[in-house]
């Protein structure tokens, strides 16, 4: 848990697939920056995959980590970057799958949205339980 102006907070970092279903999670204190978690979430990319991320992930070391694994990055440049990088704006529109995942997670599981669990271990367990339920709902509706 981290301290912020609103109190104690926790950030959920997630990696989702092309259908918006969760693959990996990581928790950090609320005041922590998003970028350092990339080492955990993006360490097993497959060649040909595309990584869609927001401007918080616009760092040369993140792009290099993605390219070294044979994947491509679709990350818009921050406004203060001296030489903006090109990115596929049409493909970037698919990043809303991550936002919709978090919306489903928080709408379906109130205890995650309000963080009922006191320990990070229990909080992560509830997130994983919710992820399993989302996967089951997807495959049940697809059948």
Structure characterization notes:
The protein is an alpha+beta fold. It has one domain (2-142): Nucleotidyltransferase, domain 5 (2-Layer Sandwich), CATH 3.30.420. The protein has helices spanning 38-41, 60-68, 89-92, 96-108, 110-113, 120-142, and strands at residues 2-4, 7-16, 22-29, 50-52, 72-74. The strands form two sheets. It has a three-stranded antiparallel beta sheet with strand order 1-2-3, covered by helices on one side. Strand 2 (7-16) and strand 3 (22-29) form a beta hairpin. The longest helix has 23 residues, at 120-142.
CATH architecture annotation: 2-Layer Sandwich
**Alpha carbon gyration radius:** 16 Å
Number of E-state strands? 5
State the helix count.
6
CATH C-level class is Alpha Beta
Strand content: 15-25%
Widest sheet, order of strands: 1-2-3
Shape: globular
H-E string: EEEHEHEHHHH
What does the largest sheet look like?
A: 3 strands, antiparallel
CATH topology: Nucleotidyltransferase, domain 5
Helical percent range? 25-40%
Number of structurally distinct domains: 1
Low-confidence stretches: none
The class by helix and strand makeup works out as alpha+beta
The N- to C-terminal Cα distance equals 40 Å
Mean pLDDT: 85
Present the secondary structure layout.
Layout: E1 2-4, E2 7-16, E3 22-29, H1 38-41, E4 50-52, H2 60-68, E5 72-74, H3 89-92, H4 96-108, H5 110-113, H6 120-142
What are the defining features of this structure?
single chain; 143 residues; alpha+beta; Nucleotidyltransferase, domain 5; three-stranded antiparallel beta sheet; two-stranded parallel sheet; 5 strands; 40% helix; globular
